[in-house]
Structures are given as structure tokens and as C-alpha cells.
Amino acid sequence: MKLFHNHLPLPRNLDAVPNCEAQPASSSSCPVPSYSVENVIGMSLPSATVATILLQSYLHAAHWYLALFYEPAFRSHMHQIIESSRINDKERGFLLLLLIVLVTGARHLDLETARHLPAEFDSQHFQTKAMQAIENHLFLALDDASIDSIAFLFLMSSTYLLMRKAQMGFLVAGMSIRMAQAMSLHSEEFWPSMGDIERQVRRRLWWAIYMTDTYTAQAYGKPPILSNTNFDVSQPTDLDDLAMLCPGFDSLEEREQGEMHRVTLLSYNRYKSQLYMLVAKGSIDMRLEQIQRLSNDLMAWKVALPPELRIENFESDDQVLNDSPVYNIFAMQALTLQATFNNMLLGLLSPLLYREKTFESIRPGIGNQSPMECNTLSSDIHRKLLDTSLSVSRLDQYPKTLRLLASSIATTQVGFQCLTAGVILGMLALRDLSSPQLLEIKYALARIISILDTIGAKTPLCGQSIDVLTEIIHLIAFREAKYVIKSASRHSDRASSNISTPNMASQDSGVSYDMRMEMEGSQSRAEVPTSTEGGSPSGLGLFSDLEMLLGEHEFPQLSQIWQFDPFATGN
């Protein structure tokens, strides 16, 4: 159809033809009508002072995490509309984007920033009124196919998920993706001629949509709309709003075409998108060697990370560095990247833990392995799951960065990743109550609870996750007490039996004490229940008592973890 358009003698309307857009005749002589902002959305915008503070709050909370626009152009357009209090038809999408950006900034105000707001400004009242205006005029964005409208719908979907309106979040996210596809945002080849800034903004927006669609599919157990094979968009290059370097570092990043450039704030999104692209290659029915290969690819990605994106390099004693806002943003990026990597690795390996007869189901992928070799593989997987979950718990070593993260939109994602690690720790503990790592697991659960409390105890997901993990600790303690009492009773009965049957005791005299203890320990471990006949309602047969204790209705996010599918395939 592009070739067809190029050879049309006159502009004509083809909006009813698939894959074509209307081609209205342009007229430069007609004046562009403008409208009062208050008449369009039913409310006036806040003052320039308030809007500037809320925008700054948004940039600190979100811009480093998911870049949706070019900040200088956005700021200039915002002040232009506030000063005139008027917009034209083509600015309706931007007006809604501006509103949701200001709402997001108001939701994530830290105490220091809030002090600069005028005393008469009521943040909560503004959020309520602005959200009502947005929802009443949502179709303004749908009728305005533009980059601003796509960014608005995307940010609105994330807001709905944070507000526990998941159904609305999924619907609006689908709208943003379909509008992006309608504008060929997924295929750079079909973009019209444009300047470099607009091209980079389009790339930023598309990759933000892709990563969020993939994460949402993983976290909520839904199939993603997008896959790696149905888009072709280059990674965004640096613009000056996210081109800052990290103080104290001077590493290089390999970009597309093998070019080497300094690591900047936008490097975070490029590395994160590579991680999502890696995991998207997997599938739920992968053979064991495929899982091992993908696990190796993930580890290679981790090794290639520059020092600026490794959390262990932050929380310095250098006060100059600690006072640097850019340094602190890099620290938050490094921490969220570590949590995301751990979550991807857990998602890759945890399905093997969930299956009832794990190695019977994957035996075709491991050749003619002996039972002992299968047990070794099982132990290796459990060790990797344990080490990765413990790595999540050790993020408590970075309290300053966690406190900074509390005022960002990354809180919910990191909170869910902590919850996932905590539940897997609980499953590993319940699998073997005689494990020497049991005490370490319980301490790790306590550390994860502390992390959740630091980053967002008042947010719904983090608050409920604290309740879930606290109940898991109680369950482990309850089951451990039963196991210890039963083991003590068994030893007592055996001792009484040895006293009353001396002949049997003499027959055992050739067996060393250590060997008898090992035999008894093996028998004790065998008596620890590791599966439940019939499985649980959510399909997890290993620990139905865990689900029964916590209750799917009381803690709905548990069912999302039971159904966690890192390799759900979309259309």
C-alpha cells in the first residue's frame, strides 16, 4: 500500500482500506482552532510552579526507569499550555499525558520535594480530580492517534495496575499497544521522515511498551501481546536528558553495530531490554539442556554488565558521591536490574520445582541418566534456586538505595520479585525440614520482609506480601516443630526397643553410630511430606498446605505466583 500511495496522482481518502490511513488535503490558509483547557477536560491545570515541582517528582520516580518522552521538549510544551490555558485538536493527547504525568509525580512526592509546594496546593485533591478528568475524557486519546496518546495510554495502564485495577490496566495496555502498531511503531522501516529527537522518542516508547508487556505477562500469568519476532525497532541512542555519566565511573557500553560508548543513564534500559529479549526465547516445555543453555546466557548477560549497573559498587562512604542525584539514580537502576535478573533466573528454574514428578517429565531432555544422576541434577537446581533467592534477600545490604526506591514507580515490580523469591524460599524449606540451610532460609525470609517494609509497606502489593511471607515463616516453624517432635518420639521408641530386645541390639553392633544416625536421618527426611496426592486447586501439588493456610482469596497474588509462566506465548 505504501507503493500504491506513492503513485496516486491526487490525495484521496483510503481510511476504509486495511493498512491505509486517511490522506486529507492540507490547507495552510485555514486557522487552527483552539479550546480552553477547562472546557476540554473540566478542570484547570495547576500553576507553573506546582507543575514544575510535580514534573520533577515524576522524572525522579519514573524517567530513569522507563523513558517515554524527551524531557526538554515535554517541559517546554507543558509551560506553553499552562501559560495560554488553551490547546488545539492535535494537543489533546499531550494534555492527557501531561495530566497523568503530574498525577504520577504527585503520587510519588518525597518529603523534601513536597516542602517546596505552595501551602494551598492539596496533592490528594488534585490527584482525585485529575484522575476523574482523565477517565471522563479517555476517548480523547483514542481519537488522537499520536505518540503522546500512546504514551498516555501506556502510563495510564501502569497507574491502573498500581491502583489494583488490573482488569482496566490490561485493557488500556492493549489499547496502547494496538495504537502503537496502527502507527507502525513496531516497524521502524515504515516510519515517516522525522528528526533524530522524534525518532529516539519513538524508540524509547516502543521498548518501554515491549518490556512492560513482557513483565506484566510474567507477573500476572497472562499471555503477552508482543513477541520478539513481530517487531523491528533499534535501541534508542542517548539524548541529553538521559546522557548523564555516573560519577566515579568511566566504563564503556557496546551499542548496536559494535560501537563503544560511555555508559549513561539510558544504558539501563538498553541492558534491561536485552535481558527481556533473552528470556523471551524460552518456552514452558523446554528440555533440560535448553534450560541450562538459557541459564548460561543469562549468566553471560550478568557478567557483561558494566560496573555502573552493579549494585555491589554503590553505597559508597564517599559523601560527595552519596550526595549526587545522578549517582543515586544509577544505584537504583543497578538494584532494580539485579532484582530483575534474579527474578528471570527464578522464573527459568522454578517450573522444575513445581512439577509433581519433575525428572520423569524432563527425562527426555537429559538422555539416559541414572537415578543418581537425576538426583544430582535435582540438587543442582535446588541449589541454584536457593542461591538466587538468597541473593534477593541480600539486597537489604543497600538500605539507602532501597529508601530512594520507595519514591519510585519501580517499587511494585521489585516488591513482586521479592515476594516470588520469598515464596520459593518457603517451598524449599518445606521440601526438606531437616536441611542444614533451614535457619539461613528463615533469616532470608526475614530480610525480604525488611526490604518490602523499606520500599513500600504502605503500598498494597508490598504490604500484602509482608503478610504472606510472615505467614510462610509461621508455617515453616509449625511444620518444623511437628517434625522435631516426631523425630524425638521416634528416637525414644527406638531406644526403648533396643533395651527390650538385646539380641537385635547385638546384631546392630557391627554398624557404626555415625552410620546409624545417617540411616535414621534419611528415614526422617523420607517422612517429610513433599507432595500431595491430587494436587492443589491452583495446580501446585508440592505444597498445598501452604496455599490452604494463606488462602487464595485472602492473598490473590499467591495464585499469580503459582501460575507464573516466564515463557507465556502471545498471538
What's the layout of helices and strands?
Elements: H1 2-6, E1 34-36, H2 37-41, H3 48-63, H4 71-84, E2 86-88, H5 92-107, H6 111-114, H7 123-136, H8 138-142, H9 147-162, H10 166-182, H11 196-220, E3 252-254, E4 260-262, H12 267-279, H13 288-303, H14 319-322, H15 325-354, H16 358-362, H17 371-393, H18 399-405, H19 411-431, H20 438-456, H21 460-500, H22 502-507, H23 513-527, H24 544-550, H25 556-562
Structural features, described:
GO terms for molecular function: DNA binding; DNA-binding transcription factor activity; zinc ion binding. Keywords: Nucleus. It holds the Pfam family Fungal_trans. The protein is mainly α and 571 residues long. It folds into 2 domains: 198 residues, no CATH class; 276 residues. It has 25 helices and 4 strands. The strands form 2 sheets. Strands 1-2 form a two-stranded antiparallel sheet. A two-stranded antiparallel sheet has the order 3-4. Strand 3 and strand 4 form a beta hairpin. Helix 15 packs parallel to helix 19 and helix 19 packs antiparallel against helix 20. The chain is globular.
